[in-house]
Q: What sequence folds into this?
């Protein structure tokens, strides 16, 4: 039986993600630094806000090692939005900051420009680059709902499951071993977003 | 776009004559299954200008609807806006405070990003002046500023989107006001949403093709006719307009 943990974050609205998981038939638990992660089968790290500030919050609570220890057991681990960005080795928002380091990647500001205001908000297309259990039954070239100004660039192209273009190509779905990340908000992306969440929750972490 | 009054959905005509059109939670579940791009809720109660009713609705609606949601009507402070966003709204819609308390826009945009603030501008055409007059306070108070000046001022304050709503067209199903929408789109550096008058898909096509508008908000079209967002987008796609693919 799946036991899904949703990590509590300092700001932002977790309820929408919780509601989406509940709608899918799961009974997710809000977890924090006091929780026993060993009891979970899946961990979700959501996140809204500034890379450096969110990472500082995790560090202050001793959470990075706890998240790393969970993922090291091979259990499925998901980052959403800034939670995906934290999976990278390095963030650059408000200065260079170490991330959780699951993926050899950096998180950089999108270029912006005429007709491409930042933050990038709205429905944009995800171009699926390779098969992955989490994208099963999600069609190529569908649109998802984004709200962000920074995005991930991977050193190893095979870590990029989905690519989106907004002035420049960036990684919108990342996957390495048992860790995956969505730059968009699956909980706001209707049927396809919910499908991704459902796939993640039934995933065993094997590729 | 869904109008709230005392916990029910209603539809008005020229901001008056409210007809009950159902339950906000059930209706939102239906729009979710019909792939609407976004939902906008406006609390139109003239007696109770507070965000309490909106908070109750967002809590329930976010259990059945998994798309971006904007909420407004009665937002009087940055705290009101923050409460709605922290309870599940992705964006807030402000109107009256955009005239005399622009710091509500700025503070909300600073905290949550410019994308979180939609400024709604309600207008009536004044035949004597041969120009549009802007209204706040649910269409009751005329404001003495031109349309273009106000659009530029709210964007400078931090608005991420501008919604232009024709009171004359509201609920009439006679089509969007092309002229006023075009004027707003011409000066706005932010995406523009047009509201008021949706009655059929042809009118939507005309407004998209003739004004430079980014999005259309529809109430009556989906409330009172055999229409839905899936069919609307299929029709508009046949005219070369791009919509999200789900």
A:
């Amino acid at each position: 039986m799946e036991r899904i943990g949703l990590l509590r974050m300092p700001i932002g609205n977790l309820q929408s993600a919780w509601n989406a998981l509940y709608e899918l038939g799961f009974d997710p638990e809000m977890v924090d630094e006091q929780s026993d992660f060993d009891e979970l089968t899946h961990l979700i790290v959501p996140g809204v806000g500034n890379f450096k500030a969110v990472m500082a919050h995790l560090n202050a609570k001793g959470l990075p090692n706890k998240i790393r220890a969970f993922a090291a057991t091979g259990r499925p681990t998901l980052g959403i939005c800034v939670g995906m960005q934290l999976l990278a080795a390095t963030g650059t928002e408000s200065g260079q900051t170490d991330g959780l380091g699951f993926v050899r990647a950096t998180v950089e500001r999108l270029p912006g420009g005429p007709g491409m205001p930042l933050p990038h908000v709205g429905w944009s297309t995800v171009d699926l680059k390779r098969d992955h259990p989490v994208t099963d039954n999600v069609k190529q070239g569908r649109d998802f709902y984004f709200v962000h100004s920074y995005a991930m660039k991977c050193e190893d192209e095979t870590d990029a499951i989905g690519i989106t273009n907004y002035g420049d190509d960036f990684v919108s779905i990342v996957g390495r071993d048992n860790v995956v990340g969505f730059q968009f908000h699956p909980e706001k992306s209707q049927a396809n977003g919910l499908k991704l969440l459902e796939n993640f929750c039934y995933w065993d972490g094997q590729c | 776009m869904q109008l709230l009054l005392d916990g029910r959905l209603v539809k008005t005509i020229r901001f008056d004559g409210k007809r009950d059109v159902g339950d906000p939670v059930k209706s939102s579940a239906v729009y979710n299954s019909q792939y609407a791009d976004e939902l906008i809720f406006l609390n139109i109660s003239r007696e109770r200008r507070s965000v309490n009713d909106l908070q109750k609705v967002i809590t329930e609606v976010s259990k059945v609807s998994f798309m971006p949601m904007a909420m407004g009507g009665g937002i009087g402070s940055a705290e009101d806006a923050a409460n709605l966003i922290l309870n599940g709204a992705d964006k807030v819609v402000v109107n009256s405070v955009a005239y005399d308390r622009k710091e509500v826009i700025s503070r909300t945009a600073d905290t949550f990003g410019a994308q979180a603030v939609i400024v709604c501008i309600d207008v009536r055409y004044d035949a004597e002046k041969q120009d549009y007059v802007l209204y706040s306070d649910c269409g009751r108070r005329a404001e003495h500023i031109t349309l273009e000046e106000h659009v530029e001022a709210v964007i400078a304050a931090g608005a991420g989107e501008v919604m232009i709503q024709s009171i004359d067209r509201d609920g009439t199903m006679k089509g969007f006001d092309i002229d006023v929408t075009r004027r707003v789109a011409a000066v706005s550096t932010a995406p523009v949403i047009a509201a008021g008058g949706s009655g059929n898909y042809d009118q939507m096509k005309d407004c998209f093709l003739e004004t430079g508008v980014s999005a259309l908000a529809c109430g009556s079209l989906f409330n009172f006719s055999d229409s839905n967002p899936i069919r609307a987008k299929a029709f508009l796609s046949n005219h070369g307009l791009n919509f999200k693919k789900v």
